[in-house]
Write a structure and sequence with these properties.
Layout (H helix, E strand, L loop, with lengths): L1 H18 L3 E8 L3 H14 L3 E8 L1 H9 L7 E4 L3 H6 L7 E7 L2 E5 L14 H4 L7 E4 L5 H17 L4 H9 L3 E2 L6 H5 L5 E5 H6 L3 E3 L3 H4 L6 H4 L3 E5 L6 E5 L4 E5 L7 H12 L2 H6 L3 E10 L1
Helix pairs in contact: 6-7
Length: 297
């Protein structure tokens, strides 16, 4: 009787698990998208109780390499620089790219940062180079915010007409790398760092003090793209290239549904829902493009 009861219970469990299957949607996304994507995922799961969304935040280049080098699969890949999708993915991996959101670069700090009462929008580049000031940035080989910081240095050197400024910044910031820009936040808030280079959305969401960088430096404006493109930096390449040259440009996020997505139909439905959530994007200080752009890869 005990064995019979055990078998009945086991059958009941198996039947229950089979009668209520859950679809899993896997999203690899840039660290700066963590807050809005988590909120949108929760809302989507409420409306679609048969769906479980699994999100993995990381530096955009590292997220791409999960697919290209680590043989991982996902349903949606979201990066903070849409151009990376064209550089690292061929049309056999993903044939469509959607450009969907914008941001800008800033320098963030707290009231406890050295010279917080002295720094302003005009002297920030001088104060950050003082010997006792500690600055940090994300890793340019893993995260677009890292290489955009290098581009910011070059744009600042040109804007302020100070030859050698970029090299000085690179040398000073080389000692404090983190995989993605959000990893710098605890170091700043604990006082281990005085200033960090980060996206405006993350700085504002975390109630940090910010430097209002000129538009010629912050890479915010589409109409300044031609000027931004005068400057570039190099990042490690793929198996086919030793290095890749990345131009400075208007900051725009991109996403794609890989061709081997296990749930491509569900992925496209989630994307439509995500783009419709204006209030969540606005609450996270991250701007959606008025009309997301669909590109062929």
């Amino acid at each position: 009787m005990k064995l019979q009861a055990l078998l009945v219970g086991l059958v009941a469990v198996l039947f229950s698990s089979c009668s209520d299957p859950k679809q899993q949607l896997i999203i690899f996304h840039a660290g700066s998208l963590t807050n809005p994507i988590n909120q949108i995922s929760r809302e989507y799961e409420k409306l679609n109780p048969g769906v479980v969304i699994k999100t993995e935040a990381g530096g955009s280049i590292f997220s791409i390499r999960k697919l290209t080098e680590l043989n991982r699969t996902c349903d949606i890949l979201m990066v903070s620089d849409y151009i990376l999708l064209s550089i690292f993915l061929d049309s056999l991996t993903a044939n469509q790219i959607i450009v969907f959101a914008t941001n800008s670069m800033t320098v963030a700090y707290t009231n406890q940062s050295k010279y917080a009462d002295e720094i302003n929008n005009n002297n920030w580049h001088e104060i950050l180079l003082r010997p006792d000031v500690k600055i940090g940035r994300s890793n340019p080989s893993q995260d677009p915010c890292g290489y955009r910081t290098e581009l910011l240095f070059k744009l600042a050197e040109d804007y302020y007409k100070k030859p050698g400024l970029s090299r000085k910044f690179l040398n000073k910031s080389a000692t404090t790398f983190r995989p993605k820009e959000t990893d710098l936040l605890p170091l700043l808030q604990s006082g281990e760092l005085d200033y960090i280079f980060i996206y405006s959305s993350n700085a504002l969401r975390n109630n940090l003090e910010v430097i209002q960088l000129p538009d010629s430096i912050n890479m915010r404006r589409l109409d300044l793209s031609k000027y931004y493109n005068n400057f570039s930096t190099k990042i490690p390449g793929s198996k086919l290239k030793d290095s890749i040259e990345i131009p400075a440009q208007y900051i725009a996020y991109g996403l794609t549904v890989p061709n081997n997505s296990p749930n491509s139909e569900l992925a496209h439905d989630f994307i439509k829902f995500m783009i419709s959530q204006d209030s969540i994007w606005m609450a996270n200080y991250q701007s959606l493009l008025p009309n997301p752009i669909l590109m062929k890869n």
